[in-house]
Each structure stands twice: as structure tokens, then as C-alpha cells.
Queue: 2 jobs
Job 1
Amino acid sequence: MTRLTFLGTGTSQGVPIIGCKCKVCTSTDLKDKRLRSSALIEHNGKKILIDAGPDFRQQLLRENIGNLDAILLTHEHKDHTGGLDDVRAINYLQKKILPIYCEKRVEESLHREYSYAFCEIKYPGIPQFNINIIDSNPFNIDGVNITPVRVYHRKLPILGYRIGNITYITDANKIEEHELKKVMGSKILVLNTIRKEKHFSHFSLSEAIEVAQKVGADATYLTHLSHQIGTHKDLSNCLPKGIYASYDGLSVETE
Ligand SMILES: [Zn+2]
Ligand SMILES: [Zn+2]
Ligand SMILES: [Zn+2]
């Protein structure tokens, strides 16, 4: 069994956006409150987090998560890495260093952004990460097989991840055919879309639907949603069969 819980489903600014008075940002529907995109995958008794954005603390508190086995990072943008200082709580509770899996370029970014966590003489109480460099080849974490999927975020090569029958892809606007083969057969697909209109670095709604239909998973959930895509209700009403709008707190599972 593999379960995915959406910790956040919003684009980089989150929804509501500070100061915005639009219909989506002022909606009282809890499904329109979108924290920065992140997901927890539970597989074979392991808890693996994908991305740790600025809302990491709030997300772990809301879902009552006190332990993690690893964090996989898709890329270095702050909406996916900005919460890593709060790994301190996990270090303290589990009394261990938390493994992070990312590409070399992302590691270099973490060294810059969290320089205090990597210095020779460590200040007490700083976050403790153990970085494992990966590429687009499959790897294993304590018996859990992970298949990275190479996708492009404008020109930036970043990673999606397949664990069991669930594939999670965010911040993409291009996937090459040979990489899409790794996604084929997934029962659940998570895919990013930011809005209906074309965007330079994210799938538009119609582009995401096209990829989803090509993969043909039993269910595809859309994430990394901006306020421009509309309310959860409006978006849900315009999606084809088998494609759903995700929302914060939604949990889905498959064999
Ligand atoms: Zn993002
Ligand atoms: Zn708005
Ligand atoms: Zn990004």
C-alpha cells in the first residue's frame, strides 16, 4: 500500500496571496487555502516527504507528523526548500540526522541557503541534514524503491518521483517521452498546473490534462495551484473524468 497526503497544494506564493481580494483568495472554503506544495508518501512503513517549503512547520503540525525517514527534494526553489530549518524538531524527536535526497545543483544551493548547518563548528540546535546526491537513476531508501523522473521547469532540469504506484511531479512544463515511460502504469499521478493560460515554467491546465490523459492513471490530482485557476469547486467542475483538483489535507492511497 502506498499513501500520499497533500501537505500543500499551492503555487509559490500560496493561496490566499497577501493582499489579494480576488474570489479565490477571499473564499471561505477550506479547500481554497493552499499552502506551498509538498506531499508525504507512506510506503512499507516508511514516511518520505517530498519537498519542505516555507509552510513545513505548519503542515507537519496539522497532519500530526512527528517522524520522517527521508526528504526528497524536487528542486532548489524556496517554495520547495524554505522550511528546512524546522527539520530541527525532527532531529530532536528522532535523535538522528535526517537524510535528504537531491541533485548536486540542489545540494549546492542548500549549502548557500543554510550555510550555518554545514559549517565546521556547529552551533547547538541547528538543523542536521545528511545529503545524498542522486540523479535520474533509481535508488533505494531502507527498502523503498524510488524512481526519479526527469522533468523540465522552463530550462531547469528537476525531478519528479515515483514510489510504488504513485508518481508525484511538480513545477514541470515539459517531460520527454522516454522519461514519461517511467510514469506509465502509475495508478495515481500528481501533476502540477498553475492556471488555464500558458505559463513559461509550469504546465497550463490543458497541458497538464494532455499529460494526464497520455499516462492514463486511475486518478490524476492537480497541484501547485495558483489563485488564477479558480476555486476548488470551479476547477473541479471543469475537469475530465479521472482528473481531480487536489486540496491541502487530501489523502489518497493505492496498492
Ligand atoms: Zn514551486
Ligand atoms: Zn487572489
Ligand atoms: Zn519551482
Job 2
Amino acid sequence: MVRVSRLSAGGIAAELGIVPGTELLSVNGRPLADFLDWEFLTADENLLIEARLPGGDLVEYDIERPEGESMGLELEPPAIRRCANRCEFCFIEGLPQGLRKPLYVRDDDYRLSFAYGNFATLSNLKERDFERILEYRLSPLYVSVHATTWEARKKLLNNPRVPDILQQLTRLADGGIQIHAQLFVVPGLNDGEVLEQSLADLWSFGDAVLSVALVPVGTTQFSHLYTGEPMNEENARRILARVDAWEERALRERGERWVYGSDELYLLARRELPEAAHYGDFPQIENGVGAVASLRERVRAGLDRLPRLDGKRIGVVTGVSMAGLMPSLLEQLQRRTGAQFDLIPTVNSLFGPTVTTAGLLVGADIRRALGSRGDLDIALIPAETINDAGLFLDDEPFVTLREALPMPVYPSYDFIDVLASEGQRAAA
Ligand code: SF4
């Protein structure tokens, strides 16, 4: 069902008399199944829209939409396609009980892959889905490949009915669809020959596979399904050696790196993270590939905008994995502003010590880290820890936490976003 949630004042839809709650049924005679149909079918200028108003009246709108003008409406979020797999390393299986319900939804939805860059395994694709992907040219898609050999993929996804990804990718590539691939690497399962074969298979698709990210398997203290070997420094080094070899080949033959190790892989291997130039246009930054390089770059570029903050003491809360990388960044900030920066590496109390990512810290962790730090003038916390509704993963509202702490606290993505205006704030 496709239902209107909001209208922009003065927009086409509002002028037609469409109101929130209106159900959109068809466009030019084609029934609407979801937001994709709406987006693509309303690309025409001449539209015959069939709708049902909240009171039940059926109406038809026959309109000529001026070129480039949007319809001026937003749709209710779509019903998410659920995942048919049961991966041992699934992060959702590794969540503790008692969190808010939406966090337990295992989505595997090609539509969100196209619209938002969410990774999908394609294992729940039906014939109709393929037809839509090809008709609407949903490209690029973000695909969790994990392995191209069928037996290994069945094991990794813990799903004996998983389709052959090579056949699926062939059909997509033949239809002009490009993909960004990710491979979660599980030691003992897909880190040796299976990994090599998978990279070779993906490479053989040519331009249809735009980039490949290798991500080390991660588990929490609640990952009860996981029976594989833990990822450690030695495994990470071996995987990166393979990345190096493939990068070299890709640079030689295609002029770009094509395959990337995630930041986490470099951290586990205790290898220096590459500079920003390594990542080109950062094709998988949302997947933790090049995020550190990008942060370093943004800090470097933003230093000139920072005011002097002499005498200030600034706390910086981060996860354990980022703690080792912070001193060099904080030194630059310190030199430029004159402030003293205190790094506060914080252990994740909800997921356990194996989860070291800054963005997964919860309200209770930050409360514990800062609650007794009356010596700080301000504190910066990772902005990724707070969702659009202002909640941490443990449901603590940011506003409540902020009021309880003895210093002003600011969510920050890259230090510059907060510190650039700290001079005015202090003077106000
Ligand atoms: S594909 Fe695997 S990891 Fe992703 S949601 Fe499904 S079970 Fe979890």
C-alpha cells in the first residue's frame, strides 16, 4: 500500500486536494505496490492518478505536471522486506534483549539497497523483483555477496535455499545494473580459496562490479549462533595481503583500486590506515571503508576555521578501536586552538568489550565516562551514537543525558563541526 504521510504547502498534490492518509492506487493505469512504483511512474509529465481519500472516496486526478516540478508529497515508510537467512554472525542475532523493537528487524530489501545504500543479499528476490530492478534500472545496488561459491554462501548465510549469486549477478549485469559488493570474511570459511575465487568471479564481471569491500566478521557477547573462529590480527593481516595483491592488479588493469579493506580490518591487523587518496571517491564509506581517512582529511581541511580556545579543557569520548588513532588528530586540534584535549576511550557495556566501534556506544557508557568529569569545560561524543529521534541504542534520550552531565556535551562528527563555533558560544 502506498499512502501519503505529508504534503508540502502549495505543492501539486496539496492543490489537487490530496491529504495525509490518501492511498495512491495507480498511475496511468499501473497499480502501485510501493514507493518505487510511485517514484518511477510519476516521472512522466501527463499523469492519471487513481487514489482513495481517507474517507473512502475514490478519485482520479488527470494532470499535466510542469517539467522538473515535484508532486510535493511524502509517503509513509514502506513495509520492509525481511531477511530469509540466519547468518551466524548476524549483528541482530547478537543484540541483547530488551532494546526497542525496530532494532531487531532483519531487513534484506533491494529497494532500500537502491534508495539508501543498505546492503541486501538478494536471496529473497522473486521473478517480479528482478523485472522491476531491470525495468526501473535500479543501479547501483549494494550487495552482500560474502562468497560466490554456492556451498560457501549457503553456509555463510545459513540458508540452504539461497540462490546462486553468480547467476543473479549475471542477470543483473546483462541488464546494465551495477553493484557495490561486500564480503564479510569469516576465518576458516571464506578467507582462503573461497575468498580468492570470489574476488576472481567478481572481477570477471568487469564494470558491473564497481567496488568490493572486505569486512572482518564481528561478534558481540550475545552472538549465540556464531561457531566460527574469531577474527584476530594474523587473520586480518592475511586478508589484507590478499587485498594488496588484488589492488595492485586492479590499479594496473583498470586504473583504480576496486577492492578495499574496511578500516576495522586495518585496525585489527595493526596496519597503518591508508590516506584519503587511496579511496578515490570513497565508494563504500558508509560501510566503514575509508571513514578514518575521511575524518583526518576533514580535520586537516577545517583547522583554519577553528578559534583560539586557550585554557579550555575538552573531553573526547570514543570507542576503544578509535582510541589509538586519536592522539595525532587531537594534537593538531590542540596546536591550533590552544585547548587541552582529554581522550576518553570507553568500553561498550551493552554489547561487551569485543564491540569497540565508537558509533555503538550507548547512553549509559557516556554517562559513566563523563559523569564525574567536573574538570572538563565541554565534551564531544560521537554523533553516530544518536539516532534521528535523539535516542541512544539503549533508548536513553540525548537531552536527558545532557542535562545530567556536569559539562555542556555536543555530538560531533569531525570535531570541526562543533569547535568552529565554540569561540562564539563561549563569548555569548
Ligand atoms: S543477511 Fe544475515 S546478517 Fe543480514 S540481516 Fe540477514 S541474517 Fe542478519
